[in-house]
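Dear colleague,

Thank you for sharing your sequence with our group. We've completed the structure prediction you requested, and as agreed, I am returning the results in plain text so they can be pasted directly into your records. Please verify that the sequence below matches your submission; if there's any discrepancy, let me know and we will rerun it promptly.
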Amino acid sequence: MDQENSFGSRYKESGNPESVRRLHRQSQHRYHSPPLLQSSSPAATSAADCESSHRGATIMAPVEAEQHPRSALALAAHDASGRLSPFRISRRDTGDDDVAIQILYCGICHSDLHTIKNEWKNANYPVVPGHEIAGRIAEVGKNVKKFNVGDKVGVGCMVNTCQSCESCEEGHENYCSKIIFTYNSHDKDGTVTYGGYSDMVVVNERFVIRFPDGMPLDKGAPLLCAGITVYNPMKYHGLNEPGKHIGVVGLGGLGHVAVKFAKAFGMRVTVISTSPEKREEAMETLGADAFVVSTDANQMKAVKGTMHGILNTASASMSMYSYLALLKPHGKMILLGLPEKPLQISAFSLVAGGKTLAGSCMGSIRDTQEMMDFAAKHGLTADIELIGTEEVNEAMERLAKGEVRYRFVIDVGNTLSAASLASSPVPAL
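Please find the predicted structure tokens below.
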């Protein structure tokens, strides 16, 4: 459910479309969020303060306020325990080409969990995760042409690139070597980016996605990551043609969306999973045409050489041979998951059938907008479980165990405020 009423309460001056304000760089306007429950000493940054916050207390450790002039409330992880707690962050002012977004919902991606626990050894603590951001425009810079105050919008995995390299100029900015990710990345001014587990964000308009009419903010938020991650390789590799047969390995946050897009394209879809109990969900609920248990040799043999392509959404390590055998000659297997161990593959399994093994990472802004428009046209959304901020640490534990169908989405607009956190603190499990 979109939070229409919540939006107007914070931005009374700009809630009327007729009073859209074009902000100049020297504007004195600031975003004001409610004061947090803070420690008695504003400068308290000791290890004890951080540890108290990790245990679920609502004590705020201050951020370097001089970096950016605008204050925001967020949930942050401070160490590899991955425990999230309320935290005050700073955001930049709305520049000439920027929009300020009031965040209403933010999806939880498995990469959020990897990052806050520093499993990829690249965490820049404190980490404020979240790259499936959905909300409304609260302010626009004076040069902004695409958006107006009040528009429903989203932000995905990136917030800037060099905008001048070959990848950027060809419309593949998701492969820019200087890409700035939505969180845990170094921005152009040297500060670390903070993600969508926050009440607001400021983003260059180039990297903002418009939510089409009819697309709900909560169920649409995960499409900004999961949706484009499966849509882009299907389009790029020609695996979006009606009548073609595609296999989807894994039925989780990515896999369930892949099935929906493939069916919307008019394809024959076979879900490949290690979990027999997912058969009914795959076929009856999501509409897959067939279901194969990958550990059953007879079932795998029955579909050998029948598929034009495979989207491998699983992050578990596996032998590629048995999956490549399912492809027709010149078939393509696209890797979307990131297994910890090196791939196990024989060159013969590729060469003999002229097959392709490729990877794919996210998608461009243009393709993301196209994906969102396609999804809205076909009534396609992610299957979600909506949670409050007080449930976020429990959700992370459940995500690690695979206990979600299929995407957690945080109700930021209704549950991330000083008042709500005071009454329902974020427990550190």
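Summary note from our side: The radius of gyration is 22 Å.

Kind regards,
the structure core
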